[in-house]
Amino acid sequence: MTHDVHPTTIRILLADDHALVRRGVRLILDREPDLEVVAEAGDGAEAIAMARTHEVDLAVLDIAMPRLTGLQAARELASVRPGVRILMLTMHDNEQYLFQALKAGASGYVLKSVADRDLVAACRAAMRDEPFLYPGAVTALIRNYLDRVRDGEEAPEQLLTPREEEVLKLVAEGHSSKEIAGLLFISVKTVQRHRENLLHKLGLRDRLDLTRYAIRAGLVEP
After folding, report:
1. For residue 109, how many C-alpha atoms fall within 13 Å in the half-sphere facing its CB?
2. What residue ranges are annotated as transmembrane (predicted)?
3. CA Rg, the chain, in Å?
4. pLDDT digits (tens, 9 = 90+) for 85-130
C-alpha cells in the first residue's frame, strides 16, 4: 500500500502578496499529511483565476492584497467555486476586518503572528464547517453582541418573530390551528399564515419537521 497520497487530502489555494509569507505558510501546511497547497496566488484577482483552473477545497486568503483584497476575492469565490471553504489570514487584530470577513463568508480568521500555532487547526475546522476564531476575536464578537442587546437592537440572527415562536411552540405541542387561534386571540387564517411563514423561513416541510426544530430550539421538551 502506498502512503504518498492521503485519502482525504484537503486541496488548498494560498493567496498572499508577500512571497516570503506564502513560503512560510506553505511550509506549515505541507508538513501535514492531510493538507496540500495546490495553487498559489500573489493577489486577489490571481486567486480567482487559480480557483477557476484548480480543484480546491479551501482558500487561505490574505485580507490586504493588491487588485482584489481577500475580502473581495472571498465574495467572488463563492460564485466561481461554490462550496469552497475560506480562511482569512491577517496581520491585524482588527475588529472591523473580522466582521467583514465573516460577512464575506469566511469560516475562520487567523493572525499571521500565530499562524504556526493556529492555521492547521483552522483549516481542519473549516472543512468540518466549524468556525475558527482566535481568542481576541471571540471576545470582540461577544462584546459586539452585548452592545447590540444593550442598545435594544434586535440581533439580526433572530430568525423568528416572537409571535412566530409562540405559534411554533403550540404547533409542536400538538394544538390545532383553531386551538392556537383561541389561545393567541388571533384568527385561524393568521395562524395558518404564521405556519406557512415558519415552514418557509426554516426551510422545513411539515409539522413533524417543525416539532423537531422546536425541540432543538429548546421551545418544547422532547
Report:
1. 26
2. none
3. 23
4. 999 998 877 777 788 888 888 988 898 888 888 999 999 999 998 8
